[in-house]
């Protein structure tokens, strides 16, 4: 097999069975999308017009009044926070991220204060926000959110993510009600979500998505929502957003990836994965079944349970061997402490599932027990 571009640079071939991960370069971009990127990179355009055109086209997918394309979702968080604090006023925009003297508190649930490879609080502070946590890490009540609002509050931030605490939290409707009652903008971080319309339809003012995660776009992100707030986001281009600039080519790439997104099947179904799970279960010390995503998305994965007593290796050791082989195989390793890792089929290329099963077989055969 010919070497891929990274192997040509002396790096390992990677099989990604853990999903879209920043540490592995997030997503693989379809060739039709890359063709658009390459054409966009090689020509000139009036950037302001492209920004508006991209906003209009993204909004066709989300149902929002307008949208603003960013370099990534983290930039989207910083920019939407700066939009809330400055309301787009040019003098305030120029002052960011120093928000002294302005209402700058961003209210979020403690159970939503996540780290996705960087703390979400870093992105909030980059936008001039001061983080105010509401509730306990496992439980929050609406009165606590109400009570936290004061004259220094700039916005409410709701995070939808598998990283969040999933139980005992407030709903998006709770956030919409409190935001409306106090006339405050509501920001939703939906970075890895697939549903382009739900969060806008629920009444949020600025909803943030990552382009590279669910939509297989080149590195990009976008904020979609109410025109007044998207205008305030666009105004940040003359402030903090300049340090987070997205090129014309990736802006175009995002548009083509979104057009293509609706036509893309969502990965193998439970039934299609079952024979693979059976093949793994036939190996010594390994038991595989099919699990659904814990954030209840329509994603199925193969969960492999390692029996240390049968295999002589625990799940950590098997996962490490997968990762450290000639081909680096990355699985989802959130539950290694429970003796489990899982295989996400959505990011696998043709033939790669077979390579993983073969490698597991090799590991089982070489395990000394
Ligand atoms: C990945 C992620 C981000 C950041 O997305 P980037 O596009 O990589 O900046 C923000 N919030 C959540 C919840 C994420 O999962």
TrEMBL record:
PANTHER family linked: L-SERYL-TRNA(SEC) SELENIUM TRANSFERASE
UniProt KW keywords: Pyridoxal phosphate
Protein name (Swiss-Prot/TrEMBL): Selenocysteine synthase
InterPro entries in alphabetical order: DgaE-like, PyrdxlP-dep_Trfase, PyrdxlP-dep_Trfase_major, SelA-like
The protein's required cofactors: pyridoxal 5'-phosphate
UniProt GO molecular function: L-seryl-tRNA(Sec) selenium transferase activity
Protein family membership: Belongs to the SelA family.
Pfam hit, one: SelA
Residues the record lists as N6-(pyridoxal phosphate)lysine modifications: 213
Signal sequence annotation: none
């Amino acid at each position: 097999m010919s070497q891929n571009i990274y192997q040509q640079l002396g790096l390992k071939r990677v099989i990604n069975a853990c999903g879209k991960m920043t540490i592995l370069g997030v997503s693989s971009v379809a060739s039709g999308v890359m063709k658009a990127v390459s054409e966009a990179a090689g020509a000139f355009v009036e950037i302001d017009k492209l920004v508006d055109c991209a906003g209009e086209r993204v909004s066709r997918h989300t149902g929002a009044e307008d949208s603003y394309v960013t370099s990534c979702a983290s930039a989207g968080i910083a920019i939407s926070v700066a939009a809330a604090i400055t309301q787009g006023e040019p003098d305030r925009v120029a002052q960011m991220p120093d928000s002294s003297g302005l209402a700058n508190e961003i209210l979020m649930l403690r159970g939503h204060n996540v780290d996705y490879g960087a703390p979400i609080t870093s992105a909030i502070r980059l936008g001039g926000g001061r983080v105010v946590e509401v509730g306990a890490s496992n439980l929050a009540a609406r009165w606590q959110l109400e009570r936290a609002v004061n004259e220094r509050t700039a916005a409410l931030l709701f995070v939808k993510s598998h990283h969040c605490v999933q139980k005992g939290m407030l709903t998006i409707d709770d956030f919409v009600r409190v935001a409306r009652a106090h006339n405050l903008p509501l920001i939703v971080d939906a970075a890895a979500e697939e549903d382009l319309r739900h969060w806008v339809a629920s009444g949020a003012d600025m909803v943030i998505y990552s382009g590279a995660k669910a939509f297989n776009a080149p590195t990009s992100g976008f904020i979609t929502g109410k025109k007044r707030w998207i205008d305030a986001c666009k105004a940040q281009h003359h402030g903090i957003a300049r340090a987070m600039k997205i090129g014309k080519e990736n802006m175009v790439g995002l548009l083509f990836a979104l057009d293509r997104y609706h036509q893309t099947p969502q990965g193998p179904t439970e039934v299609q994965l079952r024979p693979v799970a059976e093949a793994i279960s036939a190996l010594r010390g390994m038991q595989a079944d099919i699990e659904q995503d814990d954030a209840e998305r329509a994603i199925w994965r193969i969960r492999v349970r390692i029996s240390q007593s049968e295999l002589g290796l625990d799940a950590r050791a098997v996962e490490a061997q997968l990762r450290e082989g000639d081909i680096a195989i990355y699985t989802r390793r959130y539950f290694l402490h429970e003796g489990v890792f899982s295989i996400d089929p959505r990011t696998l290329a043709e033939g790669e599932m077979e390579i993983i099963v073969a490698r597991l077989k090799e590991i089982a055969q070489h395990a000394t027990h």
